Every structure is written in structure tokens, then in C-alpha cells.
Amino acid sequence: MPDDQDWRLKAELDSADRRSALDRLLRRVRGPDVVKEVGEVVSHDVAITHDGKLLFAYAASKDSLTTARLAIEAVLRRDDVKAAIFVSHWDERFDEWLQVDPPLTGSSKDAEDARERDAEKVESRTMVASTGKLIRSEVEQTMREWADKLDLRCEVIERPHLLTTQVAFTVTGPKRKIDEFAEGLRAEELATMRTERAVMLSPL
Question: Is the pTM of this model over 0.85?
């Protein structure tokens, strides 16, 4: 799935021969008869696929996904196949799909609300990264800028060693943003290791 396709439709077909129904749907959803009924062509930027059990459509915008949904529903009506359809939006805070239609209710809604509250809970966390002495200041500056972008308070503690420097970052803010900072720090540490290896292996 391309990174910009952050709208998803999932359809659970009520059919005895589900795979055949899914195959037929994929063949016909962009057909001229469906286009005429819907009044609009499903954009080729919309990816429509299935895994033999469920149908999926991915789109970069809600409008594009809505057009695809209308086309899918048109084919299902003509084939007299019932389906449960769910629309989700990619939630970068949790790195997963968040269902928006139909809205969550009952225990699912309670669980989602609890997760939202937990993600926004303010906490402090200390993370340590190892870096070469020559590029320590660059790593530190990068992570300070990342903390500023996430609106986190960041304190830096250096622990010099013979060949490397351990840099400890203590960040304070919402849990979900600290998780983002931690991912950035891991990526920066890996990039630092690759840079140091390249320098060590380069001819003098």
C-alpha cells in the first residue's frame, strides 16, 4: 500500500462462494455499466484487492474512497450479494487503522476512548543512544529539533567513553509523541552506525 493511501474500505461478503464473488467484483467494479450508474469513474489511484475472504480498497482521499464504495455497492446489488462494509482512516498516533464508519459503539468505543486517554497521558522517559564522538553533536542537534517539532521537553546527558559517546535523552510530554521520538531516535542511531562504518571502511 502506498504511503499516501490512508483511507481504507473493508468489505465482508455474505456469499457461499466468496472467492468467486470477490473475483467477479474486481473485474466489474470499473466497468462502463457501473460508471454509468455511479456517475463517476473509480480513480486508478484507488487500489482494490482481496485476500480470498475480504475485499479491500485503499485511497488517498475520503472522496476517492467514497466513489469506490459506490461502485462496489453497485456491483453487489446487481449480484444480489450482501456485505458488511467498514471504512477506516490510518491513525499515525497508534500506527493502525481507526474505524470511522460505522462509528464504534459499546465496548469497542470504550476501548478506543481509553486508548486515546492513555496516548495523551503526560510522562517522562529516558532513552540512550550510542554515537561516535565526531558526529555526537549532529545526532544531538537532530534529536533536539525532533523534540521541538513534537513539542516535547528534552534534556540531554552525555556519557563519554573511549571511542563512543552515550547520549541520554529525557523527554517529557504525551505518551504518543514520546513513542514517535523513540522511533526517530532508533532510526537516527541506525543511520549513525551506518555512517561510522562507512567512514571506517573508506580508504585513507
Answer: no
